[in-house]
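Lab notebook: predicted structure, single chain.

Context: the supervisor wants predicted structures on file for every construct in the current expression panel, including those that have not yet been purified. This is the next one on the list. No modifications to the sequence; it matches the entry in the shared construct table.
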Amino acid sequence: MYPALFRRVLFPAYETLIRRGTHRFLEEYRRNQWLDAASIRRIQLDKLNNLLEYCWEQVPYLDRIWRQSGLRPRRLQSARELEEFPTLSKHQITSNYLEMTSTPWRGRSLHKTTGGTTGDPFRFEYTMESYARRTAVMWRGYEWAGAGLGERTAYLWGSPTPNRLRDRLKDNAYHWAFNRRVFNANAMLKESDIEDYVHAIDRYRPTALVGFVRPVLAMAQWITRTGNSIRGPASIITGAEALYEAERKEIESAFDCPVFNTYGCREFMLIAAQCEQRTGLHINADHLVVELVDPEGRGVTDGPGDVVITDLHNLAMPLVRYRNGDRATAMHEGACTCGRGLPLLQSVDGRILDMIVTPDGRNVPGEFFVYVMLGRVAITQYQIVQVDTDLLEVRIVCNDALARSECDRITAQIAEVTGPSMRIAIVKVDAIDEPASGKRRVTISLQSFRARRASS
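Prediction complete. Output recorded below exactly as produced.
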């Protein structure tokens, strides 16, 4: 009853009141998903050409590097012709921030900072329409897994709790309206915490559970190990980390429900998600252009490639052929039997965040450290390495002198979660070593650190 009321009346009324229009974009994307692949490619190409025309005129940095590459303004005949354009790195955007911000939106846009699951904090600009559209795309993907608007949903997520009472009350009211309850994954550290979370979610009885892979897996393993059971959820959505097939089966066995994998990042939110068939992950091709390329930016047809993304709607800072640091593999077996014309990823291959295990038995997910580093603009790269049972090195690269007080705040925030048994050392380095795969890991656990040291 409530989900239908929220979806049809309350949510559209709220979005109309604040003049954002997410509900209208959601209807558009719901219609698009059932178009055939050729029709979706036509929509994508039309949006892409409009974006490129805008960039040539309004984004000085893109105009300059494109002309330096020998390109001139023209309408593309296929999205594949994007391969002629150079790719964009976070470093390029950060170093040319003003010129990357489109002229009409300077001083008018919104901005976010990502902690960087590859260890590179990054700030970017965006418009309210692009935010509404990416939110709509997210709800479309969550609907496929039974976690649509207004559905009773538990979130095992890593968002920090606001400090101010007013902000906490606002958050609680917002979550209540959306019919969801948020459980802080970063606070689920010990065996007793896992037990408390399982019982709390059991009492809440959600229709769906949305969570980071590692905390959801830890709950599943506790349920299996102890012989406990949990009422509901009817489906689980995982994200933020790679989900392996063995882990999926373990979670499904413990919770007795299907697991749906998703892929996203803070710059674009949901990039791809699994539908009811749970084979590949449908790419949101009516909203983004997702390419898999080699180091030179050329498309790869077999095996994993570097993920390169173009946001078709963010006019404040158009990210055209942006490398987000991930790797993925496309699926070429043909259309999904669900009937949607959206193309498929077979797998996301390059997002692995190690779990840090403290001497007193706490399990700290790698995603926690991403939140610790959010907004710390003096830090350009970082990596957390557990070099001994009770020693954690926070390796950082700074673009400026990092104040002692800032180091103390980082140490205190980590120590609050890792506990008194773990020593924390902040180590300033000139660079973070890149592994052969090209995908730097935010956290390296003691076990993987020893394995690396033994093989070197």
